[in-house]
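Hi everyone,

Forwarding the result from last night's run.
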Amino acid sequence: MNNNDILRRLRYTFNFNDKQMVAIFASAGEDVTREQISQWLKKDDDSDFVALFDTKLAVFLNGFINEKRGKKPGVQAIPEKRLSNNIILTKLKIALNLQAEQIISLLSEVDFRLSKPELSAFSRKVDHKHYRECKDQVLRNLLQAIDKKYHVERSKKMVSSASGNSTSANDKKDYAKKKTNKGIKKTPSSPWVEGARPNASSVYVNPNSTASPKRPRLKLAK
């Protein structure tokens, strides 16, 4: 795996947009542009593709830790000039607050078996007798497992959000209906009449009057 692959996978898994990517670099003390982000995310055979150096990926991973765990006050971590899969794995572990058992469980979800002693060996110092180099296969499967876990969680959240929007839409529909019927009154003896009182169309008759309810017909003088 190369550095650009790792950057692409993390961006996709956590759905970072360009603005967020720039902010992650900035939180670790590096100012980058959207154009640079775009070039790093291009496919390797694209004419605008630019290789991502170790130092830049180290800065991003430090910023990723800030993004997920909160930025600590004071001087930020100095990015490594040369990265190894072991260092990258350690930074991902810190950023996502993963314990050894959780990493092993994540890997098992993508049918990759790794023992606790093997995982522990990746965190040893290079000159330690139990140190083991983390191969691309391990890191690739870990990134796939991380994507499976966190990408699915995001999808569930989106489905839940969509369900909530459906309820909201019904509420809006009911509100619109009430608003449309505002000022409309109905009684058992009268139809719907917009903006009118009940029985407004009936002729009023004074019950105390002795006159005939019928009006006399007027005749024109000759």
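Residues 184-204 have pLDDT under 50 and may be disordered.

Cheers,
N.
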